[in-house]
Design goal:
It is built from 16 helices and seven strands. It has 431 residues and is mainly α. The protein folds into two domains: 290 residues, Fic-like fold (Orthogonal Bundle); 124 residues, no CATH class. The longest helix has 29 residues.
């Protein structure tokens, strides 16, 4: 399913619900990012730029592609078009072995939806590079592209829920207010107000105040305003996430990546903005940007070294690392590393019965004592200076898709470094 529109069906009811619509605010009244968040953004951006300066063009393209593919596969899952899990998102984003087969197993039409959504993010990049001017015509093209395989959408009518024809690339011609569980409505812009509201939105996006703003403020505002209007019959969320990506990509060459398992927090933050407090929404977008910068940086750092299977020849499986503490959450984090370590070492152990060496590499979780620290955990390999910063919410109530992708690449780097060291030892021992 996609958005389920339960709009009123009688003329008087339509007028009453239309009157509930609250126009999105002008950008001049939009909150600004706090000092702590700005400092964090500057720190992570500097670290990412440093890693970029050492990378090749191919490595840069690959790292951004991983993030864009993660955004493209999960944007449809957020809308319930199909289901994803941590491993599936990782497989599609990294294009691991048999990722296309895994995509096909998700059901008929999922590959077409993913391809359309991926092409939509390419249109967002075109807006950044000015191959396509950012305006209403571009937005309608984006909607047409990102929703291309979708032929119908679900609507509550006098006859009950029905699938109705879906006009892609055109503003809505019927109300799409959402019927809530308590019988009330969440009102979007009335049909007659869509065109003037969309003109106003793009006027706001061209103001000098907006153009000089922090990219997180820009992305959060553009996304929120579009969803507040809900100008299309369906697909507004997918379009809004791609539109928000324009501003993060323009500043830092990263898309806005929101994973399906962040759906509840995502909609809660938007609901707070609807209620008049956009600050949690701004923080949510900032945190997703930090996650994505970390993902791109981890991909670049991993690409800078050789793959483990390019080095390993006849090494036996290495012992799994043992755990330490921040109580259950630290153990969970260490358990995730252990599982990936076993999988990675098994993949390069061509002859487990014959071991050239025995090695035990120890991992540790450092825990920040400051309760206000945004990154409560630091994952450390004792034999390496390579560390991984982790938020508490990345491991509770479950490991997020973003952290999962980063852990896979971090473990790969640790294994690569260990195998290189062992290979040098073996060569030195040979006559």
């Amino acid at each position: 399913m996609t958005e389920e529109h339960g709009g009123p069906r009688q003329r008087d009811d339509v007028a009453a619900v239309d009157a509930l619509y609250r126009p999105f605010p002008d950008f001049s009244t939009w909150p600004r990012l706090g000092a702590v968040q700005r400092d964090l953004w500057a720190r992570f951006a500097a670290e990412l730029n440093d890693q970029r300066s050492r990378a090749t063009g191919d490595q840069l393209a690959r790292a951004v592609t991983v993030a864009v593919r993660a955004a493209a596969i999960d944007t449809g899952a957020i809308e319930g078009l199909y289901q994803v899990d941590r491993g599936f998102t990782m497989s599609v984003a990294l294009q691991t072995l048999a990722w296309e087969h895994a995509l096909g197993e998700r059901g008929e039409g999922v590959r077409e939806l993913f391809d359309a959504q991926l092409a939509g993010y390419e249109l967002a990049i075109d807006a950044v590079t000015e191959k396509a001017p950012l305006g209403e015509a571009w937005l309608r093209s984006l909607h047409e592209q990102i929703c291309a395989p979708q032929r119908t959408y679900r609507v509550l009518t006098d006859m009950g829920w029905q699938e109705q024809p879906f006009e892609r690339g055109r503003y809505k011609e019927a109300p799409n207010h959402v019927l809530l569980g308590d019988g009330s409505y969440h009102a979007y812009a009335p049909v007659a107000d869509v065109a003037p509201e969309m003109r106003r939105l793009f006027e706001q996006l061209r103001t000098s105040t907006f153009e000089d703003a922090h990219p997180v403020e820009q992305a959060a505002y553009a996304h929120y305003a579009l969803t507040a209007v809900h100008p299309f019959a369906d697909g507004n969320g997918r379009v809004a996430r791609a539109l928000g990506s324009v501003y993060l990509y323009r500043n830092g060459s990263i898309p806005l990546v929101i994973y399906a398992n962040q759906r509840t927090a995502y909609f809660d933050a938007l609901a707070r903005a609807d209620a008049g407090d956009p600050t949690p929404w701004l923080a949510f977008v900032a945190n997703r940007g930090l996650d994505t910068m970390q993902l791109v940086e981890e991909t670049l750092r991993t690409a800078a070294g050789p793959r483990p299977d390019e080095i390993a020849e006849s090494f036996a499986a290495l012992a799994s690392p043992s755990g330490a503490r921040l109580q259950n959450l630290a153990r969970r984090l260490l358990g995730e590393v252990e599982a990936r370590w076993v999988q990675a070492t098994d993949a390069v152990a061509h002859d487990p019965a014959h071991s050239w060496f025995e090695a035990t590499d120890t991992f540790r979780v450092n825990i920040a004592r400051d309760d206000a620290s945004p990154f409560r955990f630091q994952l450390v390999a004792l034999a390496s200076p390579d560390v991984l910063d982790v938020r508490e919410e990345d491991v509770t109530p479950e490991v997020t898709a973003s952290l999962s992708l980063r852990l896979d690449q971090w473990v790969q780097r640790q294994l690569t470094a260990l195998l290189v060291d062992r290979e040098h030892q073996v060569r030195a021992e040979q006559p």
